[in-house]
Structure formats: C-alpha cells, structure tokens
Amino acid sequence: MQLFFRQVNPLSVSAKAALADVKRRHNEIVELEKSIQTMQEIFVDLQNLTEIQVHLVKFNEMVDNIAQNIETTKDHVEQGARNVKLGLEYKKSATRKKILLALVIIIILLIVVAIILAVFLSNRK
C-alpha cells in the first residue's frame, strides 16, 4: 500500500524529505541560537570580571597610596621628634647663655658700683 501511495503521490515522498531537512535545519538553528546565547553570557561574565579587575586595580593603587602616605607620615613624625629634641637642646643652651649673660651683667654692674663707690669714697676723704 505504501508503494502504491508513493507511486500515486511522489511529491509526498520529496515533501517528507524536505520536511525532514527543514526540521533538521531548524534544530541546528535552535542549537546555534543556544550557543550564541551561551557565548553572550560568557561575554557578559567576561565584562563583569574585567570591571571587577579594574576596581581591584584601583583599590590596590589606593591601598598602595595609603601605605605610602603612612610611610611618609612616619618619616615626618620621626623628623618632628628629632626637631623637638634639637629644640629642647637649643632651649637649654639658650637658657644657660641667658643665665651666664645675666651673671656677667651683674658682675659688671657690681664692678661699676664698686668703682663708683671707690671714687665717691676716695673723693670724700
């Protein structure tokens, strides 16, 4: 009977073959579409990873900058401590010099007073 049907309707056999070919191509297109969607998801993931990497690079630069600022601050604090110590030494030295100068002035004044008294007392006799 199928033989009879094939002989009577030869287009049906070629139509079935064409239909099978169309179905096969449709399935291939569906698979291609799935592959393209997967590829698109991969590109989106890659873009997200790239953005994360850019943020990490910026974060690392910021951490490096903070570390450098801490190191610079440490150096400045150490220099400040040395300057304070040096300032205290200068202050002690200046205080000693002021005391010495005051003693010299007092001695000079005593000598001047002694000379004036000696002259005054010698003129009285």
UniProtKB/TrEMBL annotation:
GO cellular component, one term: plasma membrane
BP GO annotations: exocytosis; intracellular protein transport; vesicle docking; vesicle fusion
Pfam families, sorted: SNARE
Transmembrane segment boundaries: 99-121
Domain T-SNARE coiled-coil homology: start-end pairs: 14-87
SMART domains assigned: t_SNARE
PANTHER family membership: SYNTAXIN, SYNTAXIN-2-RELATED
Name the UniProt record assigns to this protein: t-SNARE coiled-coil homology domain-containing protein
The organism of origin for this protein: Cylicostephanus goldi (Nematode worm)
Lineage, opening ranks: Eukaryota, Metazoa, Ecdysozoa, Nematoda, Chromadorea
